[in-house]
Amino acid sequence: MFNFQGNSKALNAANKMSLHATNPGTGANPAAGSELTDAPYAQQNCVFNAPVANGTAAESALNANVVFQLHLTNNQNAQYIGLWENATYLGYIVPDEPFNFTGNATERSFTVNAATTKLVRDNP
After folding, report:
1. What pTM value is reported for the model?
2. 91 vs 1: CA distance, rounded Å
3. In degrees rounded to 5, what are phi and psi of residue 115?
4. Per residue in 53-67, is it b (16+ CB within 10 Å) or e — as a string?
5. Residue 117: which of 79, 61, 67, 78 has the closest Cα?
6. What is the pLDDT of residues 17-74, one digit of tens each?
7. DSSP assignments along the chain, one per residue
8. What DSSP letter does each residue of 47-70 carry, written as one string?
9. Is the per-residue pLDDT at 122 higher than 90?
10. Which of 4, 56, 2 lies closest to 24, judged by CA?
11. Cα–chain-centroid distance for residue 20?
12. Any residues with CB less than 8 A from the CB of 47 and at least 6 apart, and which?
């Protein structure tokens, strides 16, 4: 779901991703308190390929997996992926496999899979 800023940008303008426990929405900024915050979590850089036509839609595939390192003991939910162009919030996508992390771990990360992640804008 793109917000106004996202709809006015090229389909592959997003160059950063964030993780959100609750729906960040399509306002000018993500919903307050929705983004994960516990270190070592940080927004990650990403690259989307140039859009290609697929019927009436334009599709832009994620170029490479994006990996987020997460806190090892705090419970965290990765339910939405925020899209950014630098500091401008563009909207969000829902990951193929949202995940709730609970309990303690020796390693914890969330991967946005390039093989299954693409942005689509359709004008039927």
Report:
1. 0.92
2. 6
3. -65, -25
4. eeeeebbbbbeeebe
5. 61
6. 999 999 999 999 999 999 999 999 999 999 999 999 888 889 999 999 999 999 999 9
7. -B-HHHHTS-TT---EEEEESS---SSSSPPTT-B--STT---EE--BPPPEEETTEEEEEBSS-EEEE--SSS-EEE-EEEEEETTEEEEEE--SS-EEE-S--S--EEEE-TTT-EEEEE--
8. -BPPPEEETTEEEEEBSS-EEEE-
9. no
10. 2
11. 8
12. 12, 15, 62, 63, 64
Question: Tokens 């909207």 map to which residue?
Answer: 91
Residues in the chain: 124
| CA dist list (Å): 108 to 30, 46, 89, 101, 124 | 24, 20, 26, 8, 41
How crowded is residue 20: how many other Cβ atoms within 10 Å of its Cβ? 20
pLDDT at 124 exceeding the cut of 70: no
